[in-house]
Specification:
This protein has two domains: 3-56 and 323-421, Aspartate Aminotransferase, domain 1 (Alpha-Beta Complex); 61-320, Type I PLP-dependent aspartate aminotransferase-like (Major domain) (Aspartate Aminotransferase, domain 2, 3-Layer(aba) Sandwich). The protein is 36% helix and 16% strand. The protein contains 14 helices and 16 strands. The strands form four sheets. The protein has a seven-stranded mixed beta sheet with strand order 4-12-11-10-7-5-6, with helices on both faces. Strands 1-2-3-15 form a four-stranded mixed beta sheet. A three-stranded antiparallel beta sheet has the order 13-14-16, with helices on one face. Helix 3 packs antiparallel against helix 11 (305-320), helix 4 packs parallel to helix 11 and helix 7 (179-190) packs parallel to helix 8. Pathway: Cofactor biosynthesis; biotin biosynthesis; 7,8-diaminononanoate from 8-amino-7-oxononanoate (SAM route): step 1/1. Pyridoxal 5'-phosphate binds at residues 108-109, 235, 299-300. Belongs to the class-III pyridoxal-phosphate-dependent aminotransferase family. BioA subfamily.
Length: 423
């Protein structure tokens, strides 16, 4: 096989030996993608969890077009520009009051890398260099760079890269009726005195299988961190921008993180951008005439003006339109449709948090590498539905412009998939 000729593009999280053909997409609008051959495909996963208000939202498209003709890019070290300034101001207006400084990057993974470096830099610069331990939650996922893999679940995703990763301490996922074990485990490790930070996906662990836990547990975990002076990092890359029902997941628990990571929906899903927000104490620990205390992190496209303009347009939609009401309506629709799966014995652990719904198809081989995963993906593609199961876990996370009829079609297909592939 001449792989260079057959697969010139190497696609992400794709085993080309199993999926040799990609679906060519020509355009998009609202909750739909249009393939090159004219098929309208419902985007049931918001194109990897990024699209919020809908594809090609006119206000965001106009902002991108206008900004592209004015200022496309400028080095952000030693310079600034209006879209970044306006975006930072608006972010500080809608995010927890504890957060006072905005650091720009370009993806969810890098926003988490920034958070980890901020935490370690804080302790180093305040004379506590022995605080280096990072605590994580079992089944977590925070990205695919070396640092973010290190703080994520170890397994098939990263086994080949194990020599590059640093050690972390893990606490168990808060399972129903056993959340106290998670809180107790965090309490125990924090008493060691060497913990720099605890990083967690609030309320929903995405790539780990859409695992969900209640807000009160998140609040308890934050209280433990406060009691032991451990920095609390909220990875809201996926859970932010309305997915869990509130603008940010931490709001549902009344939690104000020390450091927070936001990406994906920050531009409404139009362009790559990320931010890491932190408390003033963390910025102040790096603020010094001693240049060795500089926060040494950058990317070439930090605070790209066009991406920032898209994010400003997104924030204006949030501030000027009834987005929360749309999210509540979508969550209600999800709740009505997922209720029909409760009595289907082919599915297990049917669950919902805000606009996210998930269920596990009962099969003999479960888990991310379950053979049923590619079969389910192809099954839904044949029905013009973009659903990308996590192994035998099916989930629906659509844009906020989704209608009840759209969801009816999705859940009818899921029920049919259960009859076809379930055991």
């Amino acid at each position: 096989m001449n792989s260079k000729r057959q697969f010139p593009i190497w696609h992400p999280f794709t085993q080309h030996a199993v999926m040799p053909e990609m679906t060519p997409i020509a355009q998009s609008e609202g909750a739909f993608l249009t393939s090159k051959d004219g098929r309208r495909i419902f985007d049931g996963i918001s194109s990897w969890w990024v699209v919020t208000h809908g594809h090609c939202h006119p206000r965001i498209v106009d902002a991108i077009s206008e900004q592209a003709g004015r200022l496309d890019q400028v080095i952000f070290a030693g310079h600034t520009h209006e879209p970044a300034e306006e975006l930072a101001e608006k972010l500080l207006h809608v995010t927890p009051a504890s957060l006072s400084h905005v650091f720009f990057s370009d993806s969810g993974s890098t926003s988490v890398e920034v958070a980890l470096k901020m935490a370690l830099g804080y302790w180093q610069n305040t004379g506590n260099a022995d605080r280096t331990r990072i605590v994580v939650m079992e089944n977590g996922y925070h990205g695919d760079t070396i640092g973010t893999m290190s703080v994520g679940e170890r397994g098939v995703f990263n086994a080949a890269y194990e020599p590059l990763m640093f050690d972390v301490t893990s606490v168990p996922f808060p399972r129903p009726n056993d959340a106290d074990a998670t809180v107790a485990a965090l309490e125990l490790v924090c008493t060691r005195g060497d913990v720099a930070a605890f990083i967690v996906e609030p309320l929903v662990l995405g790539a780990g299988g859409m695992l969900m836990y209640p807000p009160e547990v998140l609040a308890q975990l934050k209280a433990v961190c406060e009691a032991h002076d451990v920095l609390f990092i909220a990875d809201e890359v996926m859970t932010g921008w309305g997915r869990t029902g509130s603008m940010f997941a931490c709001q549902k628990a009344g939690v104000e993180p020390d450091i927070a990571c936001y990406s994906k929906g920050i531009t409404g899903g139009s362009l790559p951008l990320a931010v890491t927000l932190c408390r003033s104490e963390i910025f102040d620990a790096h603020y010094s005439k001693d240049r060795s205390k500089t926060f040494f992190h950058s990317s070439s496209y930090t605070a790209n003006p066009i991406a920032c303009a898209a994010a400003v347009a997104n924030l204006k939609i949030w501030l000027e339109e009834p987005v929360i009401e749309r999210i509540a309506d979508l969550a209600d629709m999800q709740n009505r449709h997922i209720a029909q799966m409760m009595d289907d014995d082919r599915f297990d652990n049917v669950r919902q948090c805000g606009t996210i719904a998930a269920m596990d198809l009962k099969v003999r081989d479960d888990g991310y590498l379950s053979d049923v995963g590619p079969k389910l993906y192809a099954f839904f593609q044949e029905r013009n539905l973009l659903l990308r199961p996590l192994g035998n876990t099916l989930y629906v996370m659509p844009p906020y412009c989704t209608t009840d009829d759209n969801l009816a079609e999705v859940y009818n297909a899921i029920a049919e998939a259960g009859r076809t592939f379930g055991s």
